[in-house]
Amino acid sequence: MKKIIVDKEGIKTFFRNNGGAIAKKTGLVLLVLFIVTVICMSIYCVAAYADLRITVDLSDEQQTFQGFGASMAWTFQRLGTNASDEVKSQVTEMLYGESGLRLNIVRFNIGGGSLDSNLDDVAPYNNPSFDPDRRAESFFVAENFLDADEATLKAAFADESNYDFDTRDVGALEMLDMALATGGIDKIVFFANSPHYLMTVSGTCTGAEVQQNNLKEEFYEAYCDYLLVIVDNLVERHISGLEKMPEVVISPVNEPQWDWGGEGSSQEGCHFDPEPLAKFYDVFLDKLEAYNEANGADVKCDLLESGNYKFYIDRKDIKEYLEAMSKYDYFDEIDYIASHSYGADDSERHRSKYQNFIDKKYPGLGISITEYCEMEAGRSDTIESGLLLAKVISRDLTMLNAIDWNWWLAVSPCDYNDGLVYWDEGEETEISVLKRYYVMGQFSRYLDKGDVRLGATCSDLTGWANLDYSAFRKEDGSVVLIVINNSKSDKSVTVGGLSDYKNVTSVCTTAAAQTGWDEKPGEWTGKISLPAQSVSTFVLSK
């Protein structure tokens, strides 16, 4: 090993001769850093604490909004069957009623049959990782066709006499009827997480392997028949007699890019690679068009239900699915695609990247946000959890021009951040809500189908004031302004562009305990006060 000799005297001589210059340079660098720090802090203080200004442009009309919703998956079967009439009525009012969230979109889950008793001892349902509460009943009476050949089975799925709409999924259907009876439902989406297990490669409602294309190609048409028979009967039995007929939508595929198979499977789900999915939609949309023509109906389809709109490098993402679908003629007729906000959460970067891609590659293609929840264990009854939800909603509406927005589970029994309302079966106080319920109401109670989003800007160009905001004009001419103060300090904001308005009703959700939405009427002055960590809604009228 080579010995390193240090010339100590040389080092001392160097610093003795050059120390003054080094000290001066070091001092100059430190002075520059100090000045830059002072300037940055000054800019921050001005941006974060000065009187801010939000300007609403009444002439800048963006997307026409369709409303808010949540899913009736899983819990509603047991809720409708086991809960008292009082609890069922309470849940319905809290979600869809005038005193509650006023949700106007219902997402009803069409189960794939994983709850069938003949699957009780079949993998993955017998694995500890599979949640038994996520198994779902199907209206198709599968026990009559377990040993049927392919031709017989295909014909059976197209024959409505092979379905049971009287004793299957009755709890969920009762809750659906109660929601529809409120008269506030504008849209119902019948969505499926998996095809019926008799159509799958694995023989179950999850793949036997990771990312297995689990719907057999030879059953594409049979799966279409299956969905159309179910939706046709549910519409006839539960919707057609209503005074207010909601829009009916079928969503046959859910989060196709996820694994949905192999070890760790815990719910119904079906993976599709981009090309098979694009081909399936070609079959389904032809079938749907023929159904509509034959029945004088106008049932629509939600396409893709992408797990999120983030872009990946090492796996299939929304870009590849859109590219595969764009090769078919039906793609030119699509107004929007359905997607979820998982993984993106409140990220502005992911939204900007996605929207720039759409504007360049598929201009005019809209987006419907059909699912989101905070994917963390526990029940976070905090303002921080509420603010996350508010930012996700606001940024989806303003950065992606989302035409509607849907939470995941309307009701959850779990110790998980996936519910708007929580149902603890058998406990003295069975129904509870968290801070996010009230935050959701800041949006859903005041924005309706037909409201038009307006362009708005803020004087805080740096974003350091930590505000999110959105403005909508209602059909009666009133304006709804929703502002999120994410910072831990109170804010004063001047609002421009709305000088013609005279009256305002304000509602605010903060960290303080809350039992409802306390509306405060007043005279519109053009100034608003925003408490720290709050979501505030202002309804302005002339």
* Overall mean pLDDT: 93
Reported by name, the CATH topology of the largest domain is TIM Barrel
Report, as a whole number of angstroms, the end-to-end distance.
88 Å
Number of helices in the DSSP assignment: 11
CATH domain class name of the largest domain: Alpha Beta
**Major sheet, described briefly?**
9 strands, mixed
State the fourth-level CATH superfamily of the largest domain.
Glycosidases
Instruction: List SSEs in N-to-C order.
Output: HEEHHEHHEHEHEHEHEHEEEHEEEEEEEE
Instruction: Tell me the strand percentage band.
Output: 15-25%
Round the Cα radius of gyration to an integer and report it: 28 Å
Brief overview, please?
This protein has helices spanning 8-49, 75-82, 85-96, 150-157, 170-181, 220-238, 274-295, 318-325, 348-361, 383-399, 435-444, and strands spanning 52-64, 67-71, 105-109, 187-191, 247-251, 300-301, 336-340, 366-371, 404-412, 419-423, 431-433, 452-458, 467-473, 479-485, 491-496, 503-509, 520-523, 527-530, 534-541.
Detailed description of the structure:
There is one protein chain. The protein has 542 residues and is α/β, with parallel strands linked by helices. It folds into three domains: 49 residues; 99 residues, Sandwich (Immunoglobulin-like); 384 residues, Alpha-Beta Barrel (TIM Barrel), CATH 3.20.20. 32% of the residues lie in helices and 21% in strands. It contains eleven helices and 19 strands. A nine-stranded mixed sheet has the order 17-16-19-14-13-12-1-15-18, with helices on both faces. Strands 6-5-4-3-2-9-10-11 form an eight-stranded mixed sheet. The protein has a two-stranded parallel sheet with strand order 7-8. Strand 5, helix 7 and strand 6 form a beta-alpha-beta unit. Helix 2 packs across helix 5, helix 7 crosses helix 8 and helix 10 runs parallel beside helix 11. The protein is globular, with a radius of gyration of 28 Å.
